[in-house]
Specification:
Nucleotide-diphossugar_trans; 2 helices; mainly alpha
Length: about 70
Amino acid sequence: MSHDHVHGANFGVRGSAFLAVGGYRPIATGEDRDLWFRLLDAGFRGVQPLNLTVRTSRGAGAGWAG
């Protein structure tokens, strides 16, 4: 599957790639999408493995922990 969408909740990046593009910028929203496009522009490639399972913790209870 190929598309230009990235979802920050399931977004994994190698530390070296993250540092190579300067990490997250201090912007109010869309920092995951911004990082994604800067990685692609820098020549990194994105993959979307369809056979992975993501597990999360519900330690904060339902809703935003904020």
